[in-house]
Amino acid sequence: MSKAGAFDWHSSKITPATPITPDYRNTQNVRRFFTARCGEHFKFDVAFMAWMKAGSGKTMGDAVAEWLRREKKKQKPSSGRGAASKAGTVDWHSSKITPRTPITPDYRNTRNVRRFFKARCGEHFKFDLSFMGWIKAGSGKTMGDAVQEWLRREKKKSTSS
Question: Which of 22, 52, 128, 142 is the most buried (most CB within 10 A)?
Answer without folding.
Answer: 52
